[in-house]
Amino acid sequence: MKRIIALLILIISIVSCRNESKKSNTLNSPKEFDFGSLRSDMIPVKSSSGQLLYLPVYSNVPYQIDTTMFDMSAFVAIHNTNLLLPIYLTQVLYFNQDGKLVDDFLKGSRIKINPLVTRNFYIPYEDKSGTGANFIIEWIADSLVSEPLIESVTINLKPNSTVAVLSQGKVIREKH
After folding, report:
1. In the chain, helix, strand, coil percent, each to 5?
2. For residues 20 and 90, which has the higher predicted lDDT (pLDDT)?
3. CATH 2.60.40.1180 is right for the domain spanning 47-174
4. What is d(CA 62, CA 128) in angstroms, rounded to the nearest whole number?
């Protein structure tokens, strides 16, 4: 009787795993979506044709008063939340805590971000820009669009001492 119960449990487990793997494959398969099916009588909550944003990134965080820094890696995610129109990144500048330019990610070019697309910029673990490190990000659009979501995730995934910080950009100038 114990063998039959054990065999039934094994069979149920195998069948469950197969069903789960089919579900997860379905979730990763992109599908076409008709944005025209969404209500068109709604207006965007916040619209703009361009902004300059300040975004903090905590590259190194002190964990013992004035003696040791906790190093962190970070990435900046710029999400175009507009359903129909692209936005363009014109500046992605990274500064250390002393306000000195560390990196110009675009180097004079501009990047088009299509609707619902996200662009990421990475700061490595080895970076020593400090607790006041930050990005200045400028984006523009050809017409009014919904504001993009611009945030950073700063993280250290060491065992027994994982730290993560989420920051959102603050608009400091707006294009009219």
Report:
1. 15, 45, 40
2. 90
3. no
4. 12
